[in-house]
Amino acid sequence: MKKELIDYNDGSAELEAFVAYEEADSLKPLVLVVHDWSGRRDFACKAAERVAGMGYVGMAVDMYGKGVFGSDGDVELNSSLMDPFASDRAMLRDRITAALEAGRNLSQVDASKVAAMGYCFGGMCVLELARSGADVAGVISIHGIFSPGDIPNKEIKAKILCLHGHEDPMVPPDQVLAFETEMTKAGADWQVHAYGNTMHAFTNPAANNPDFGTMYDEVAERRTYQALANFLDEIF
Q: Any idea of the CA torsion for 177, 201, 208, 167, to the nearest 10 degrees?
């Protein structure tokens, strides 16, 4: 497996993505992987490698800036990095669109076949990519944030898959229903898979803080990656 870091930009912001892929004679579909609120750290890079092992080009994108990272358990630091994007969805859309453009320009990528997946904050990012009207085949939110911003949606072209823990305190049932209503009114092709007795961050083995609402769940993780594989197979 080939692994490399690539530089790209969003305006004046310098960004650094991690790319993983198996060498092949033909171009491969691209799957953007958007990190959680702690930045493009090992968890996101390992997810890109997982995607590469499935036969795609995995690109762990950088939402915060080259060399800018949070850390496990540092709520104040991670919030300070995420909150500007959560409150300014136009900026968020610009930043994830810059990653999309950089990924499409990779020499090993079939630019006509692109999906995006994201964890937690990254789920918010890929849903905003869909809301922006981006011409991508599909987006996958994994214990992501559903709430929209205050800018209007464009025509949603991407198929949408949300993998959600029913007991996630960051996305209570009323927000799930609001999201489903939003997507239905938009005419989107959407799915929400809710896992019972499952909290936030359920695919992250380091998540172990039920008081905060984050808890790893091995069964939900296994179901998530099976659903992911099925979805990518469908859209590509």
A: 10
CATH at residue 163: 3.40.50.1820
Classify residue 187 as exposed, middle or buried by CB count within 10 Å of its CB (0-12, 13-18, 19+).
Answer: exposed
pLDDT digits (tens, 9 = 90+) for 139-198: 999 999 999 999 999 999 999 999 999 999 999 999 999 999 999 999 999 999 999 999
Q: How many domains does the chain have?
A: 1
Alpha helices in 137-197 (DSSP H): 173-185
Q: Is 0.90 topped by the overall pTM?
A: yes
- Residue 230: phi and psi, rounded to 5, are -65, -40
68-123 pLDDT, tens per residue? 999 988 999 999 999 999 999 999 999 999 999 999 999 999 999 999 999 999 99
Each residue of 15-64: pLDDT tens digit? 999 999 999 889 999 999 999 999 999 999 999 999 999 999 999 999 99
- CA gap 172, 211 in Å, rounded: 15
- State how far Cα 96 lies from the chain centre: 10
**What CA–CA distances, in Å, run from 229 to 144, 172, 207, 225, 235?**
18, 26, 23, 6, 10
| Domain containing residue 159 | 2-235
